[in-house]
Structure formats: structure tokens, C-alpha cells
Design goal:
By secondary structure, the protein is of the alpha+beta class. It contains eleven helices and twelve strands. β6 and β7 (197-202) form a beta hairpin. α1 (2-17) crosses α4. The longest helix has 17 residues, at 41-57. The chain is elongated and about 90 Å long. The model has no long low-confidence stretch (mean pLDDT 83).
């Protein structure tokens, strides 16, 4: 079905770009073979409007013109849909070639290779030379590819997600905006429909299949900074601090984040660490090696998480 739709969109784009006058829906229906199979006028009208919106989302500029009889025609002028010439110096071309080597997935590797071949055909000074640098960004999470496609196609997705303090996953319905790798883990930021707010999800906590659930309903921000959102939810850059006791020779990530570290006795150290959303989940992971002294609400949240895990 995806291949058939892509072929239909391509044929529609070609029809709109290879005409000197606006073409009506009636003429397009007669010219494009895929539209011949649509039984009713209503079904065709819905399909055509969806196809036209999809082409516009892909960047095609389509003009709508009304003739003297009140019939609308459509035209994609070539001069408005022509990309400027690509001009890259050798250093920029080398940077693109290096970036193309990052992805390990076959689907992404094929797309990157095709893009570089098109640049070479356009006269960009790209040479496929071997370098001492072989960058790799691993994407072991099974949900990565489905979320990448949903992000690109602006489609909502449904999946089961297990929070850090939860024993079992719960269903989520999200409009994915962007993916980013941070500190060795992949995260997705998007609009959570059920909660009506922006949420960040760690891909390794997604279980089962990621299922498509229609198009976006919320407005997508012009810029989505996933890393900033993850840092905010993980307590990075927090202005407040929490006071904890940490067992000696343990919790080295906490020690690296501490703003103050004071030895207490032969078994414990006292630390002040940045306090923000998500800190309680992180502290709970250290179990009996961490004791929260202040603030009281953080202490209660950590205890609640530990009790939930103990109950199973």
C-alpha cells in the first residue's frame, strides 16, 4: 500500500508540474490510473485532497486557480518548485560524506548512499575515500525505525511504555516530533494526546509494536530541542539542590554531578546534587546505597518508587 501511494503521489506531482495551465480534478482523475479504481466521487475527492495535502507537506507548491465557469484547477509551476544549485566546497562535501557513514541501518544507509550519488551527479566535489574516522551511532531499540518514519511522515503512534518506577508498561498515544541520542540512549519528544502536553520517552522503555494512529492534531514547534527537554526532565541545569547520603565506593555518576561532597564516616558521604524532575527515578536505581535527607518531597517520591518495586 505504501508503494502504491508513493506511485500515485509521484504521478500526481508529475501531472501538476508538466502542464502549462491549471488542471481540474476531473482531468486528473482521467489522467492518473490509480484514480480509475476509485468507485465513487466522494471517495475520489477525499483521496485527492489527502494526496494534495501530502504533496504540500513534502514541499511542493501547488496553485489553485478558479476559471470563469467556477471550476477549480491545480498547477505546480516549475519555476516555483525548482531548487537552487548546490554549491559545496571540498570541506563541506567531506563533512557530508562523514555524516553518511554514521547510520548502520540498511534503510538509512541506502538513503544516505543515494543522496551522495545525487550530489556527485550535480557536480559536488565528493570523493568516497576511506578515513581514519569511522563514526557510528547505534540504534538497538526495536522502536527506532517505526518512530523515525512516524516523525518524518507526521503520524501519531501508539505503544506500551514502562516508566522508571513502574512494574508494568501502560499504553501511550503520542505525536512524535523529534528523536535524539543523548548519553548513549535514544529519546523521543512529542505531544502526548492523553495528557495534552509535551513528554519525553526513552526508546529502550518502549515494549511491543509501535502502531500508526493517524495524522498529527497538535501544532509542531518550529524547533524541537530533544536534548534540552531530556535534560530538563532529568534535572540537568536545575537551580535547586537535594541533599543525600551515598555509600562509599558507590554511585559514581552521582558523585560526578555533586556540587558539594562531604565525608561523614567510614561508610557514608553526604552530597548536594542538582534537583529537578526525574531525579527521584534516578536515585531509586541506587537502592540501599542512597538515603535522601532533603527535601522531604523528594524523599517521599523515592520511597514510593522503592515500595512499588518491592511489591512487584
Amino acid at each position: 500500500m505504501a508503494i502504491a501511494k508513493a506511485e500515485r503521489l509521484m504521478n500526481l506531482a508529475l501531472c501538476l508540474m508538466n502542464t502549462r495551465r491549471p488542471v481540474s480534478k476531473r482531468e486528473l482523475r482521467a489522467s492518473i490510473e490509480a484514480y480509475h479504481e476509485v468507485a465513487s466521487d466522494d471517495a475520489f475527492n477525499r483521496m485527492f485532497e489527502r494526496d494534495k495535502d501530502d504533496l504540500r507537506e513534502l514541499g511542493l507548491l501547488i496553485d489553485t486557480v478558479e476559471n470563469l465557469e467556477g471550476e477549480f484547477g491545480y498547477l505546480a509551476r516549475r519555476d516555483r518548485n525548482r531548487l537552487p544549485d548546490i554549491a559545496l566546497d571540498p570541506e563541506e562535501a567531506a563533512a557530508l560524506a562523514l555524516a553518511a557513514k554514521v547510520w548502520q541501518q540498511a534503510r538509512l544507509a541506502e538513503a544516505a548512499s543515494g543522496a551522495l550519488q545525487k550530489l556527485r551527479a550535480a557536480g559536488v566535489p565528493y570523493e568516497d575515500t576511506h578515513s581514519a574516522l569511522e563514526p557510528r551511532i547505534p540504534t538497538p531499540e526495536p522502536a527506532f525505525e517505526a518512530l523515525m518514519l512516524a516523525t518524518r511522515e507526521r503520524r501519531a503512534v501508539a505503544f506500551d511504555y514502562r516508566k522508571a518506577n513502574a512494574v508494568r508498561p501502560e499504553p501511550r498515544l503520542v505525536e512524535p516530533w523529534a528523536l535524539e541520542c543523548w548519553r548513549g540512549h535514544w529519546y523521543m519528544a512529542g505531544h502526548d494526546r492523553d495528557r495534552g502536553a509535551v513528554r519525553v520517552f526513552r526508546l529502550s522503555r518502549i515494549s511491543g509494536r509501535v502502531k500508526a494512529r493517524g495524522r498529527f492534531t497538535a501544532e509542531v514547534p518550529a524547533h524541537v530541542d530533544v536534548r534540552a527537554a531530556v535534560e530538563r526532565w532529568a534535572g540537568e541545569g536545575a537551580t535547586a539542590t537535594a541533599t543525600i547520603r551515598l555509600r562509599r565506593d558507590s554511585g559514581y555518576p552521582l558523585r560526578a554531578r555533586a556540587v558539594v561532597l562531604t565525608p561523614v564516616d567510614a561508610e557514608w558521604d553526604e552530597l548536594e546534587v542538582p534537583y529537578g524532575h526525574g531525579l527521584e527515578a534516578w536515585l531509586a536505581e541506587f537502592g540501599p546505597d542512597v538515603v535522601v535527607l532533603a527535601p522531604e518531597e523528594l524523599r517521599s517520591e523515592v520511597l514510593d518508587r522503592l515500595r512499588a518495586v518491592a511489591k512487584g
